[in-house]
Amino acid sequence: MKRYWDVYKILLRNSIIREMSFKGNFLLWMVTELLWFLGQVLFVDVLFLYTDHIGNWTKWEVVLLIGTHQIISQIFQAVCYMNLSNLPELVRTGRLDLMLLLPMDAQFSVSTRQFGLDNVVNAGIGVAFVLFSLGKLGVVPSPGQVGWYVIAVLLGSTVHYSIMFALATFSFWIVRAQGLIYGYYSLINVSRYPSEVFGGLFKFVFTWLIPVIVVANSPARILARASVQPLGLILQLAVVSALSLTLSRLFWRRALRRYSSASS
Amino acid sequence: MSLSKYFKLFDISLQNTVVYRWNFLLRSLFDVMPLVGTVYLWRALFAARGQPIAGYDFEAMVFYFLLTLLVSNLITPADDDWQIAADIRDGQLNALLIKPVSYPAYRISLFLGSRTIHAAVTLPFVLLIFAVFHRYIRLPGHADTWLWTALSVGMAAFLQFFITYSIAMLAFWFLEISTIIFIVLSFEYFLSGHLFPLDLTPPWFQAAATWLPFTYELFFPVSVFLEKTRGPALYQGLLIQAGWVVLTWLAGRAMWSRGLRRYGAYGG
């Protein structure tokens, strides 16, 4: 474990040096993400021109939900996103060979090579919106609530990771897999909506099997509502994230057996 | 000038798309997820409100999103911008420049080819979605609406392509243009009516949107079909749309000829 941490520290340092040497690009990525995020807030603004609640969520609770979603997805994207979206390319070109030869777990190597510094800033924007919403709601969460919130957010990021990792792993079967990366955004799309709007089989599947609905909803609920019992929600999140992580790992192992390298 | 070579390119593009059929089948499949999410969201919203929103009831709202799905499947360029940028950056343009084809025409042929095959393959799928949601379908009451819709969808296709093409031309000046692509994409996503119908926004916003190109990439053709835009507003809209098509085309051409002078033919 210590060895992995040491390796990660070096990777992290390299990434930061690289990011800082392309400052213009770094700033542009920040602007890009900011625009996408502000668009979401604008959307909420438009929706609430016509209603004062969705499910039992008020406007600022929904903004808090979107801010939470932003934090979760940016934490995942900072650590892994770029690397996973490169995986199909590694498989196609056969450069995965190198990763497999390293004296480390291959899943670790393909997931953590580059760290996205701009995503940290964007997660900060999410935090700012969450704080602002709390102010608007007049809610001061207890230290306990904040603690559970942080745990729930990290569990949520794990779910993001598992989904994207499983999708990227499909590239062992399909040569051109950009469509799969697009799939991550499609699946995760619904996690910005209050879970009350969903129902039926859809809600079941996307709560338990591909748990995108609960990912941001549970932490937001824990933070915004003191009356909510956090333990049940945390337990549920822990179960679904452990499950999806395990499944994606099994899937990856299976895919690796199929790998036959390319060129050379 | 013989057009037959461009038909050949069109044909190659068809074949190329079929080779990577998995890629775009998956993309279409993944389109369903946000659609279902959207339907759920609006259902909850209409349930809470209990009355129409800006002339839409729940059924009309669902139909609006079905139409945007259909139109964007028909006309939105897939990865033409990335390909063009790669041509320029990696110097693959060299091979094309020495051939007796015009690059812009070459790109238009590829665009039309990939759109045609994409439409042909995803259409059954989109129709299936329409069949599932058949209760929400409301065909136009006036026969001429079909004509205006066809015209406006056609112009929207070229508008989208010329915007994509012009952005990709920036690769002559900048090494990395993916951020610019994503920035423009965010404007397209929020201001073209992809996420919500633009007539839900406050009047000042709508007034501004009338003059922006994004409106005409998606929202305008759909609102023509829904007969929300008729009479003078329709003619004015079509004129502005045509204006944007011409403007973006001229921009693309100008950037191409200026860019080519800067072009360093790397790689090759």
Please give the structural blueprint.
The complex is a heterodimer of chains A (264) and B (268).
Chain A (H helix, E strand, L loop, with lengths): L1 H20 L1 H25 L11 H35 L2 H6 L4 H7 L4 H21 L5 H27 L8 H11 L11 H10 L2 H13 L5 H29 L6
Helix pairs in contact in A: 2-3, 2-6, 3-6, 3-7, 3-10, 7-8, 7-10, 7-11, 10-11
Chain B lengths: L3 H16 L1 H29 L8 H18 L4 H10 L3 H5 L5 H30 L11 H26 L8 H14 L11 H7 L9 H7 L6 H31 L6
Helix pairs in contact in B: 1-6, 2-3, 2-6, 3-6, 3-10, 4-7, 7-10, 7-11
Can you describe what's shown?
With 264 residues, chain A is an all-alpha fold. In chain A, 77% of the residues lie in helices and 0% in strands. In chain A, helix 10 packs antiparallel against helix 11. With 268 residues, chain B is mainly alpha-helical. In chain B, helix 2 (21-49) packs across helix 6 (103-132), helix 3 runs antiparallel to helix 6 (103-132) and helix 7 packs parallel to helix 11. Chain B is globular and about 65 Å long. The A-B interface holds A 25, 28-29, 31-32, 35-36, 39, 42-43, 46-47, 49-55, 174-180, 182-183, 186-187, 189-190, 193-194, 196-199, 202 and B 20, 22-27, 30-31, 33-34, 36-37, 40-41, 43-45, 48-49, 53-54, 79, 176, 179-180, 182-183, 186-187, 189-190, 195-196, 200-202.
Radius of gyration of chain B: 20 Å
Poorly predicted runs of chain A are none
| Count of structural domains of chain A | 1
Overall form of chain B: globular
Proportion in helices of chain B:
over 70%
β-strand number of chain B: 0
Q: What is the average per-residue confidence, as pLDDT of chain A, rounded to a whole number?
A: 88
- CA-atom Rg of chain A in angstroms: 19 Å
The number of E-state strands of chain A comes to 0
Query: How far apart are the first and last residues' alpha carbons of chain A, in Å?
Result: 33 Å
**What is the tally of helical segments of chain A?**
11
Supply the number of helical segments of chain B.
11
Seen as an oligomer or otherwise, the chain set is heterodimer
End-to-end Cα distance of chain B, whole Å, is 28 Å
Largest sheet of chain B: none
Biggest β-sheet strands, sense, barrel of chain A: none
| Percent range for β-strand residues of chain A | under 5%
Question: Most extensive interface: pair and counts?
Answer: A-B, 39 and 37 residues
